[in-house]
Amino acid sequence: MVPVFLTNFTIPPMKERLQKVIAAAGICSRRQAEKHIVGGDISVDGVITTELGTRVDPLTQQITFRGKMLPQPEKVCYLLNKPKGYVTTMDDPQGRPVVTDLLKGVRERVYPVGRLDLDTEGALLLTNDGELAHRILHPSNEIMRTYELEVAARPMQSKLDLLTQGIDIEGRKTWPAQVRILNSNSKQTTLEIIIHEGRKRQVRKMFEAIGHPVVTLRRIKYGQLGLGGLRVGSFRKISQKELENVFK
Ligand code: URA
Description:
about 250 residues, alpha+beta, Structural Genomics Hypothetical 15.5 Kd Protein In mrcA-pckA Intergenic Region, Chain A, Alpha-Beta Plaits, 3 domains, 9-stranded mixed beta sheet, 4-stranded antiparallel beta sheet, binds uracil
């Protein structure tokens, strides 16, 4: 399936191999599932599928075994406090650690909702629910992301005002941001910035544009859903109720 492109966002199709989905439903082993597929026992959205390479989304497609519907997997969402040094892709051609390596014991195939740079820490949602990912990432929903960052020296208020008004990055103005200084000493300043866009390396580029490159960057909230006490490298399951905080 072709990924969905939304100006700057790519939402991965939440698909996995048919034999894996059948085995995960607890009907049989993966090897037996392959035999059932080839033998014509399985249909996807009403069509018998004998191709072993078929990829399906078990949450949105109807899969049947000898005419009986497979149970639908639970829709899940996890909040990870991503450490630096992990990439937010499902696999990395360069062999670097990927965020899903950290989700020990998670059986569902979940995908990161958006991205964080290799050298950015903090809140990262992962889900198997494509609709949820779409709602969070779609710019029209204006989900606020809050970041905490350190920069060298102390930016002048006039420079920060440029960020709150919107600043030109690669020929396109950013949406107005909320920025405030949390504390400052002679060498560096800690700030908070709230934006609702997800352009690549956006916060870093915004601060570069005002002459204060980011030293460290951490996402602390999606909407009103914060990390709480979640330690770097740890994750927890987010209930449907808690997810409402993302949209507040
Ligand atoms: N902005 C950035 O510059 N980097 C991130 O990882 C997230 C937002």
